[in-house]
Amino acid sequence: MALIGAFYEALGRADYAAMERCYHPEVSYGDPIFQEVEGRDRVMAMWRLQLGVRDGLRSDYGAVTADDRTGTAHWTVRYVFSSTGREVVNEVDVLFRFEDGLIVRHHDDFDFKRWSRMALGRPHGLIFGWTPMWRKTIRDRATRELDKLT
Which CATH number characterizes residue 93's domain? Predict the structure, then answer.
């Protein structure tokens, strides 16, 4: 549980070096937008990208459970989505898998439709947020931005 706490404390400070120390070199990350990101360098680039489009990030985490192999947490993150200037409060359920005392798998799960409505507003988020085509558009855009960094 200390590892999960250390990760979220570092994330709250945007302390990339401390976040990176929590990750195994072979870490994989997934969420509804960045479906699968492989390797510590690419995962850290993804965090730099995500934190770069969020202004005034504030976060809280809790409901942490963990043993030597797996862990879970709930993360609430509040920020202004810089592309639209809209406030987002995202509720995220997190699953972790550990190897060699580090996070080797990190998966965030949240309601994409709800996020889309908050981050993008009308008409895009409200009308299209639930459609597979819109999800693909958002995912493709995020992947292109990540590819530019790696």
Answer: 3.10.450.50
Number of compact structural domains in the chain: 1
148 domain-assigned: no
**Long-range CB contacts (< 8 A, 24+ apart) of 1-7?**
1/64, 1/65, 1/66, 1/71, 3/66, 3/71, 3/98, 3/101, 3/102, 3/103, 4/61, 4/64, 4/66, 4/71, 4/73, 4/96, 5/61, 5/64, 7/103
Q: Is the pLDDT of residue 52 over 80?
A: no
pLDDT 10s digits, 102-139: 999 999 999 988 888 888 887 665 566 667 777 787 77
Nearest to 54 by CA among 91, 83, 79: 79
Q: Can you give the residue range of the structural domain that contains 94? A: 2-110
Q: In angstroms, rounded to a whole number, what is the distance separating the alpha carbons of residues 76 and 89? A: 7
